[in-house]
Amino acid sequence: MPPNLDQYAYTNLATQKRDGGFVWTPVWFAKLPESDRYVVFSSGKAGKVKRLRNFANVRLRPCTATGRPLADALAGKAVLIDEPAACVAAHRAICLKYRWQMRVLDFFSRLSGNYHRRQWIEFQVIETP
After folding, report:
1. Is it the case that residue 71 has pLDDT exceeding 70?
2. Residue 74: CB atoms within 10 Å
3. Whole-prediction pTM value?
4. Burial category of 109 from C-beta neighbours within 10 Å (exposed 0-12, middle 13-18, buried 19 and up)
5. Per the count of CB atoms within 10 A, which of 31, 74, 107, 126 is most buried?
């Protein structure tokens, strides 16, 4: 039986490389309200964002904060979000899940000037690989 991502705090998001391999990265994620889609954010210049520009295929598996897998991987499709309203909804979903941790991260992101350089990513689980 595939894992229910909703019960985990972190997921490993694997993005596809040109050679067909995947690069795994532990990330914060949240489910969009009344949807079967999830959101993640990253630096706009991160490798995962660059890889997602080329390939929509992703793999997901619940993990610890350090990336240690907690369940089997799932297959998914991801898209980069650019629409401002969708970015606001994604941020709201992450804030609801991570509360004070996200507020602290937002504070330091604003101080460093990285707040508006974030790339929001939306993904949907499609099947077990």
Report:
1. yes
2. 20
3. 0.90
4. middle
5. 74
